[in-house]
Every structure is written in structure tokens, then in C-alpha cells.
Amino acid sequence: MKFGIVTFPGSNCDYDAYHAVTEILGEEAVYLWHKEHDLQNADVIVLPGGFSYGDYLRAGAIARFSPIMQEVAAHAKAGGPVLGVCNGFQILCEAHLLPGALMRNASLQFVSAPVRVRVENNQTLFTNLYEKGEVLRLPVAHGDGRYYAAPDVLDALESSGRVIFRYADASGNISADANPNGSERNIAGIINEHGNVLGLMPHPERACSPLLGSGDGARLLESILSRVAA
Amino acid sequence: MARFRLSVRIVPRKGLLDPQGKAVSDALHTLGFEGVGAVHVGRYIVIETSADDARAAGESVKEMCRKLLANPVTEDFEVESAVPA
Questions:
Q1: Which of A4, A32, A124, A189 has the most CB atoms within 10 Å of its CB?
Q2: CA angle A51–A53–A54, rounded 5-degree value
Q3: Span A141-167, mean pLDDT?
Q4: pLDDT, tens only, B63-85
């Protein structure tokens, strides 16, 4: 399987994603420069973390109009898998491929720390190798990670099983203390209506080896592999 | 066609948590400005553009706000009337 990892000016997790795909998964990966119009036949698109365009205007607001994003949107609309991590999640929201927005952390501070998230739905392309309710340890590193959407949108996400990850404590309890950024309803990751576009603030690609503090992120990538290859 | 200059004010939508505004409000209180209530921090953007007339320039900038300058989920915008650039 071929992964296409988009590099915007200011992306800084593109190599982490490349490493996770090629070294941990053992699959093929290519970098896709933001000015290109060709996804190079990638099966899965990754929008990595970073600070595309210096977060000018709003995080992800300008990256959304990069030439490659037209192709990414077409890929998503055709049902192709798209994974947006951190800045990638912000870009997916700005591009309206996912609902809602990521706002300044409630603390106003940049948060760089390991957090725990609970798997809310394991019946997805991206989470089928996790247990429902399983608590993962993943790093976050963001200043604008507070997920917000109007209450009716949040209700719709919840009732349709589209909230995929929530910030939780080590026992899996959802609490304000476990919420690193003030996200509505502790939401850390959501999926689109058709289940092929996932956005999350924590970094699974940086948690693919126990040597780096956690290997919990690897199964997210392996889930895609098991489903798309099948 | 003529050149116009327009200013856009973008502010967090009313009622949404605005930690930045709250932090500024708290700091003003600390400085002794006791009368200060809610504070909201937004963006101010100045745009020069060509248009047939001031009204068309205003419409064009509103469209820019809807497409890029403001986030329709979290922000409101206000376009001040166009002046010749």
C-alpha cells in the first residue's frame, strides 16, 4: 500500500509520518509537495502536523487552498482514506472535509505532553485493531487544539458514532482534568460521515515504538492497512 | 474600475469561550481598570482592491470573508465602507 504524505511550507511531522509508514508498517510512502496536483497513486493520504504557512490567519486556513488540497478533497470525496494529524486536522476542518474548528487552547498555552485518549468507536477504517474503550497514550503538541462545533453538530457527531477519540484519564474516565485544551466534550478526534476521513490532535505517528514512550499509535496505521488491503 | 481600500474587523462569535479576551480583561483589572467588562481580541485586515464602485468592493470583500478571512464556525466579521485607495 502506498501512503502519500503532504508537505506544506511549515509542516514538521512529515518525516515522522514517513518513518512510521516505511519503518514501522513496512509500506511505501511518498512526499507530496503542496504545489503538486498529482497524488502519485497514493492509496492513503496523510496531512501531517506542523505549522503550515506559519499558522497565518488561522491554523490550516491557507494550506487549505494549496493546489494539492484540491486533489486531496477529490480523493476524500471518492472514498479514499485521509488521515489528518494535528495541523492536518486543522486543515481538514478549514477545508470542510470535517465539521467544526480547532481554536486556541483554553489555557492559552502551547501544550506538549503525553496524553491519554479513549477509543470511542473501533468500527472504523482507522481503529479496527483497537478495543472499544481502550485507553491509548499518545503525545500532543499544539497551541490551537480546542475542538469546537455548534451543540447540534456535536450531538450529531456523537449519535452517529463519529467521535472516535476522547481525552481521558488512565482509567478511561472522561474528565475536565484529562482535557489538555478545553475541547468540547473532550473530543480529540472525529471522522467524516462516510468514515474515510479522520482528524485527530494527538500524534499516533510519533507513538509507534515503545522506545519513544508509546507504541499505541502503530495500530492506527495498521488498522488502515488491514482494511484497505483486505 | 477604481481602487478602493476596505477594512475588515473579525471577532470571536458572541457567546463562544474567548480565553484570549478573558486574559486581557483580567490583566486590565490587575492594572486598576476596574470598569472593564468583557474584552474580545480579533483581527483587523486592510485590503486594497479594484472594483466598479464602493458597493461592489464591499460585496467582494464580504465574499473574501466568507471564503477565507473569517471562519464561519467561530467568527463574525464586519466590513467597513470602502474609501478610495
A1: A189
A2: 55
A3: 98
A4: 999 999 999 999 999 998 889 98
User: Which residues 31-70 in chain A show a CB within 8 A of chain B?
Assistant: 57-58, 61-62, 65
Q: Three-state DSSP class for A155? A: helix
Decide if A72 contacts A39 (C-beta within 8 A): yes
Give the 3-state secondary structure of residue A159: helix
Which one of B74, B76, B77 would you mutate to disrupt binding with A, by most A Cβ within 10 Å of its Cβ?
B74
pTM for the model stands at 0.93
Per residue in A19-49, pLDDT tens?
Answer: 999 999 999 999 999 999 999 999 999 999 9
Local structure of A103: helix, strand or coil: strand
Cell of A17: 509520518
Amino acid present at A31: Y
Model pLDDT, residue A149: 97
Q: What is the ipTM of this complex?
A: 0.84
Structural fold of domain B2-84: Mth169; Chain: A , (3.30.1280)
Residue keyed to cell 477509543: A119
Instruction: Determine the Cα–Cα distance for residues B61 and B84; give it in Å rounded to an integer.
Output: 15
Q: How far is CA A196 from CA A89, A97, A121, B76, B85, in A?
A: 13, 10, 14, 31, 47
The per-residue pLDDT for A182 is: 97
CATH of the domain at A51: 3.40.50.880
